[in-house]
Design a protein that fits this description.
By secondary structure, the protein is of the alpha+beta class. The protein has helices at residues 2-16, 45-48, 62-65, 81-86, 95-121, 146-152, 202-206, 219-233; strands at 21-22, 28-29, 35-40, 71-78, 126-127, 137-138, 141-142, 156-158, 164-166, 172-179, 212-213, 216-217. The strands form 5 sheets. It has a 4-stranded antiparallel sheet, with helices on both faces. The chain has a two-stranded antiparallel ribbon with strand order 1-2. Helix 1 (2-16) runs antiparallel to helix 5 (95-121). It comes from Methanobacterium bryantii.
């Protein structure tokens, strides 16, 4: 099956591609092996995302990205222990995390292109919204949410800090590709949008700009802090303190 071929190629790519290793940091590996899920393009939750109290009307459905879309392949790339442990201290983000966030996303984009190429080689059409010129971000809201796609694909639920908690934790990055090929969608082993979050509140104290409360996260405060990190570390930026040294860093805390 093509889906198995994609999984096998992703595994090899993560293990062998030079972009997954940082030469300046003694060949530090950024990503571990991923989780992958599939969502149906006809899932009613895509229309739900257009509601003002969810994401908003500008969020595009899979069919708006790709006419005739049938399936969305979503995946979670977990940071390696090396990257995660470096960022567990309080204060500013670690150099390893900054490289992981920025060089790691360069790798993620290459991985998106690999999946698109595999689908097209098999005779299908595919679009990676994160690489599409139609992608927009306004007021910290994008017209395609990788985390919400992962939620619909059964990979995890949201946390107090708006990260998505998977069975491999929340410290990592997501990616997705929309295709007109049809794959069996994953079931969602949860009912609530925040079912994997225990509301322990440890991420509240971890946040340098104090952007997280028991009511959620202030996106504006978080964004301003990231802007400061960019000025200090240009061209790299990031934080990730709310995703490290917390119970959901590398596991689903409800399964402990």
């Amino acid at each position: 099956m093509l889906l198995n071929t994609i999984k096998e190629n992703m595994a090899k790519f993560i293990q062998n591609n030079p972009q997954n290793f940082v030469e300046e940091l003694d060949m530090m590996q950024i990503w571990d092996q991923p989780l992958m899920g599939v969502a149906s393009a006809s899932d009613p939750l895509w229309e739900k995302l257009k509601e003002p109290n969810v994401i908003g009307p500008d969020h595009l459905t899979p069919d708006e990205w790709l006419s005739g879309a049938k399936s969305i392949i979503s995946y979670f790339l977990p940071f390696t222990e090396h990257v995660r442990s470096s960022n567990r201290s309080k204060g500013l983000p670690s150099k390893e995390w900054l490289y992981g966030r920025c060089e790691g996303e360069i790798f993620n984009n290459t991985l998106r292109k690999l999946i698109v190429r595999l689908i097209e080689t098999a005779g299908g059409k595919a679009v990676a919204p994160a690489l599409d010129e139609r992608l927009t971000v306004a007021n910290h809201v994008s017209n395609w949410s990788e985390r919400h796609a992962a939620f619909i694909a059964g990979l995890g639920t949201f946390s107090l800090n708006y990260s998505l908690i998977t069975n491999l934790g929340s410290a990592g990055r997501f990616g997705s590709v929309i295709t007109d090929l049809e794959f069996e969608p994953n079931s969602r082993p949860y009912q609530e949008i925040d079912e994997y979050c225990t509301k322990c509140g440890e991420c509240i104290d971890r946040c340098p700009p104090l952007a997280i409360t028991k009511k959620g996260k202030n996106a504006e405060s978080c964004s301003k802090f990231l802007d400061k990190m960019l000025k200090l570390n240009k061209p790299r930026y990031g934080c990730g303190k709310c995703q490290t040294a917390v119970p959901c860093e590398y596991q689903n805390p409800t399964l402990i």
